[in-house]
Amino acid sequence: VSTEGEQCGPPASPCPPGHGSCPPIVVWDEPFFQGKRHEFSTDCYSTPERGFSTVRSFRIESGAWVGFEHCGFQGQQFVLERGEYPCWEAWSGSNAYHVDRMSSFRPITCAEHGRSQLLLFEQENFQGRRGELSDDCPSLPALGWGGSAVGSFLVCSGAWVCSQYPGYRGFQYLLESDSHAGEYKHVREWGSHAQTGQVQSIRRVQQ
Amino acid sequence: VSTEGEQCGPPASPCPPGHGSCPPIVVWDEPFFQGKRHEFSTDCYSTPERGFSTVRSFRIESGAWVGFEHCGFQGQQFVLERGEYPCWEAWSGSNAYHVDRMSSFRPITCAEHGRSQLLLFEQENFQGRRGELSDDCPSLPALGWGGSAVGSFLVCSGAWVCSQYPGYRGFQYLLESDSHAGEYKHVREWGSHAQTGQVQSIRRVQQ
Description:
The structure is a homodimer. By secondary structure, chain A is mostly beta strands. Helix content of chain A is 2%, strand content 35%. Chain A has 2 domains: 17-107, Crystallins (Gamma-B Crystallin, domain 1, Sandwich), CATH 2.60.20.10; 117-204, Crystallins (Gamma-B Crystallin, domain 1, Sandwich), CATH 2.60.20.10. Chains A, B: It comes from Pavo cristatus. Chains A, B: Crystallins are the dominant structural components of the vertebrate eye lens.
């Protein structure tokens, strides 16, 4: 029985007995863990080049990962923590256009849930009014952040995902402390598909 | 300049000057805050009965609310914290079937972000292995909760939203400390549309 704030029951065996060591991520080319299966333990620059034209379900056994719509870590981003993702709805969030594939992915190496800190700024290049976060924020407006946009971020530690709408809905953008010194000076630096500085929720990534 | 962990800049004026007091929730019958507009400060049992056949965008000015697919607080649930929701994707999350309406809604009165606590149990009726949470959890598997299902909940304080998939994706279910004593003995008690005990992420609601 656990009574610690963040712990949830005794650690479960990550894999069935006799399975040996578990790869961090297992993907299938059909939903609900059907069809052809492939295991990965490092970056995948292009799933088609590894023999997978589509990824329709997967399971993350360890660590936190980020998947991308296009090869080469481009396009929409999907932050993926440990668990089961049986179909597209499980990882897509509520993105405005349907993308039924994940063409590249890599680990999020700097994620550190218990020690994450980020600064946000009203304007680009760290100008204007600023705020500081060390906890998840499902609604920036509820904490007094005027307006629904952010101009720039400075990630001091850990990894964060910021989302377009409250409650972590809409497009999501990964912000990492070990990516170009944690500096995100302009909306264009949040990702190749980022078109708006609209951010209404931000949270820490759980490794 | 704010340096507190959870604060985000100085409190902004919630409404433009000269606007007077702001209603907690404002809805429009077209996306992007167009069309006919209506203000609410309490429960709405049926938006059609109030002259709204559809709700396509809204803005939450204060408090936390929960919206429902059907009248009478039935069907899919949408937890709505303060902010702007310009279109269906902003509040729907990644629910498995498209629902372009919100037919009833009410405030979440027991939400208390800084003081929320919940117990979760492997089996229904509070049986089996248990865990305790006082912080957001984007991945129950990452914290050692074996399997992807929860049997029952006991909400000690605050309000929580549990989601089907990691990262708060998929169907969401509101769990309140002031609703039948915070006891959710079986998946059927999480909501009229709840069909699965699959829960892989849980977080506190921000008032």
